[in-house]
Amino acid sequence: MNKITLMATAIGSVIVLVGCETGTTSGDTSPLTGAGSETFREKAESLVARMSAYEQMNMLVGPGYALQPDFSFGTNYEALTNVKNDIPGTVGYINGVYNESTGLDIAAVKLADGAAGVRIDPVRDGDSDTYYGTAFPVSTLLASTWNLDIQAAVGRAIGTEIKEYGLDFWLAPGLNIQRNPLNGRNFEYYSEDPLLSGMMAASAVNGAQSVGVGATVKHFVANNAETSRNFVNNIISPRALREIYMRGFEYAVAESNPWAVMTAMNQVNGHYSGQWRDLNTTVLRDEWGFDGLVMSDWWAGDGNYPEMIRSGNDLIESGGVALAYRYGEVDALQQLENAYESGELDEETIKSSAVRVLTQSLKTPSNQGYEFSSRPDLVAHAALSRTSASEGIILLKNDSDVLPIDRSSRIASFGINQVNTLKGGYGSGDVNAAYTVNILDGLAAQFTVDSELSALYQDHFSANKSETDFNGLSTIIECSEPPLTPLEIEDYVTGNDVAVISIGRYSMQGRDRANAEGDFLLSADESNLIEDVATAAHAQGKKVIVVLNVASIIEMESWQDNVDAIVLAYLPGQEAGNVIADVLSGEVNPSGKLTQSIPVAYADIPSASSFPGVDTDADGKVDTHYYNEGIYVGYRYYDTFDQPVSYPFGFGLSYTDFEYGSPLLVDNTLNSEGAQGKVSFSVDVTNIGGVAGKDIVQVYIAAPSGRLDKPAAELKAFAKTALLAPAEDQTLVFDVTAKWLSSFDPARNQWVVEPGLYRAYISKSSETDGVYPVTFSVTSEIVVDETTPGALSLPDTVGDFETVHND
Fold first, then answer.
1. How far apart are CA 498 and CA 409, in angstroms?
2. Is there a smaller number of Cβ atoms within 10 Å at the N or the C end of the chain?
3. What Cα–Cα distance (Å) separates residue 548 from each residue in 82, 149, 582, 653?
4. 554-583: per-residue pLDDT in tens?
């Protein structure tokens, strides 16, 4: 057998893929000047010293928006200072400075939306050219690759498009936890697990910043629902905050040094995130050492902008008057000036924020004099979109090896989603791409697809689709299923070899999903379609494959037994149809694995009864959201309390099979080196099947009983193999540091590794039954880190709201 040895991606390490495009690989340096971040800070300090307090405050507030004649919101150019080469579609700005008397000429910085790719306006007045962004797969699908190199490459490509289109900052990645599948913005987030989320985000940041643009991790913290997101008060225990909702941010800050962190709109424990000093200064800066800028989400908070600056939130976006939520209030800059003149906001606080903002602004292409081309390599990036998406596709079911489908097969393709295919989610994460390959066209490029059935769906779509504008950000296209009788379905199945059914689900910023038919549940039309197609196909000895082109998971238990194979594609980007066809044909051997558990029923989710919150003041709006499950989110809950799931976290099938050798404990320096120690494991992985493929190996560690209640096991490391040929094997090595083995003890304000016997499961998913563990011991308690007493505390009025405990 051929053998490959790989040091696996594990806790405390991030792989950055450096591609063919020029640039450096450090998030701290400019590829144009080679100057380190300290040099930029020193330059910023000298420039700020030449500014008036009013010029400094102007840098802390975006220009905001102005109401246009058509009642839309447009940039308030009267308040925008020193923008150069403005780009249509820029979502926001950091004001520059221009002062002839002092010689200051600092360009405004342009901010770019789009977690799945840069979002700019494709059409410009007086310009016959078009300017598209590449629509990459959404974050959940990228995370499903479990491949940090791929995420870094995508981040690098997005950063390149931002730079070549004349922009400066990427307002991504998002790494909020997928606490509940009904969160309307889950598609922008990676996982229910903080380790996987943090590692993917760090790779995205490193990739983007390697070409000299800034990245912004968001939303800090706990934007886990869209209902009332601009004011809801999330009540979360300090332990859950630190172990689940903040730990991914901590990892990303440590391993990628993002230029910016964006605070969330919501409140946490009675404080607006952008106005809470505990978050923005005590934890983020003092404990974690973050030295970038902190910006608010657009129109976030209760309008107390001086408090925002005092908290350590340096940049108020979008600035101006909060048109979306509080139309008519005094604008943000005027508030800061009033507070300064009254002594409520002191000069040193203003200066500190101005230095942090300017330090990052100086690094940007706009202030480095970069001559952008407006011509990024969209062809190469489309190819990257296709390959990255195909590696994240998850094969959930494949009875009797129905997949892959032979290229000579004739396909009866059902479901309106094959025509109305979804590339991404709606809202600020949408991308104005040049095209989207729908599923029907993707299948037709590789198979013979029933033309009469295809025409039926295309005609129905053309005649019945509806289009709705979503806040000028997206066009939502919807269409019903065509009315097919069981007899018609039987005729189409009879004339073909295999049936494929495409099911679609969109979701969006600003609105959560529902546990209802046509959303988390199948609609009646979809249920009938699956049942009728399956009945007809199975009566003829033919197979049925379901493709899920969905923003987030749906209920599957009620229908999955009716079909032979299920492919979870999420939202694969602009190459969607080609990506799905590549997997169905076997051109790509699927290697994605779930980054979120799929429950049997919505009621099984630990947050089912609390999401998205309650109306405590009887005004008809959700205003308080109790995070009742504490640290028991996702698989931590299901595995600890033996709650069955349809598919466990980390699960995914392949067209080949992998065998793990006996895992080994390589080293344990925890007892000798304490907080600087680590534990290491290795395992041999062999492809014992008939085709080349990749596997994802996961390390779950079960901690001993101690003072703190703990989940049954937690993900602590993972690695993806190379593409292994049949009979080829690879040795993976995993390192888990004391820091990432520790749990948070809120009573003592400490991260601790408790003594006792630990069990490490080298597993294919979080379902570790039948997996023989490797054990190691910690002889005495290790205090890994001290935290600030009282930070992130609950309001005094909150009682015992956590209902899930592992006592």
1. 7
2. C
3. 47, 26, 15, 15
4. 999 999 999 999 999 999 999 999 999 999
Looking up tokens 């997101």 gives: 229
Name the CATH superfamily housing domain 47-368: Glycoside hydrolase, family 3, N-terminal domain (3.20.20.300)
Answer for the pair 628, 804: CB distance below 8 angstroms, yes or no. Answer: yes
Please provide the size of the chain in residues. Answer: 807
CATH 3.40.50.170 matches 393-590 = no
Q: How much is the pLDDT for 67?
A: 78
pLDDT of residue 25: 35
Domain with CATH 3.40.50.1700 in the chain: 393-590
Work out the pLDDT band at 327, boundaries 50, 70, 90: low
Prediction pTM value: 0.95
Structure tokens of 227? 């209902």
Three-state secondary structure of 234-269:
EECCHHHHHHHHCHHHHHHHHHHCCCEEEECCCEEC
Q: Where in the chain is the domain with CATH 3.20.20.300?
A: 47-368
CA 621 to chain centre: 27
Rounded alpha-carbon distances, angstroms, from residue 188 to 149, 175, 217, 263, 594: 19, 8, 12, 16, 15
Q: How far apart are CA 112 and CA 171, in angstroms?
A: 6
Please give the Cα distance from 297 to 290 (Å, whole number). Answer: 18
Tell me how far apart the alpha carbons of residues 588 and 590 are, in angstroms, rounded to a whole number.
Answer: 6
Question: Tens digits of per-residue pLDDT, 715-752?
Answer: 999 999 999 999 999 999 999 999 999 999 999 999 99
Could you give the 3-state DSSP secondary structure of residue 710?
A: coil
What DSSP letter does each residue of 500-567 carry, written as one string? EEEEEE--BTTB---SSBTTTBPPHHHHHHHHHHHHHHHHTT-EEEEEEEESS----TTTGGG-SEEE
Which structure tokens are listed for 622? 């959700």
CB of 27 closer than 8 Å to CB of 40? no
DSSP 153: H
Unique residue bearing structure tokens 């492809």 = 687
Structure tokens at 162: 């931002």
18 has pLDDT over 70 = no
